[in-house]
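Annex B. Sample input.
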Amino acid sequence: MRVLIVDDNEDTRETIAAILRFEDYDVITAADGHAALKIAKVQPPDIALLDLGLPGMDGFELARLLRQQLAGRALYIAALTGYGTAADKECTAAAGFDAHLTKPTHPFTIIQLLEDFESRLQR
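Annex B, continued. Sample output.
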């Protein structure tokens, strides 16, 4: 499973990436939406973990563009963000996100999310 992590906070992005690589996931990262779209074109992800408050293009727009760019592929998109109100979660659900995780998120929660998605794909 290839996981795309998009977060403008380098520490957050690289920490999550290191944990997922340790769990044998193929991880690619980007600091903003434009870089994420370029990377996803060459290395299409199975799962995208997106911060919502990104510079230049927010996570909502990025999710929409990733779905367009990768149309026809199974793509699981989860918000991984500091925005954690009920209204925020309603917005991500309405925008087509498959899940919403609020930072700080325990690494086990992220791994469980990825494992659940993998098991759904195998059915």
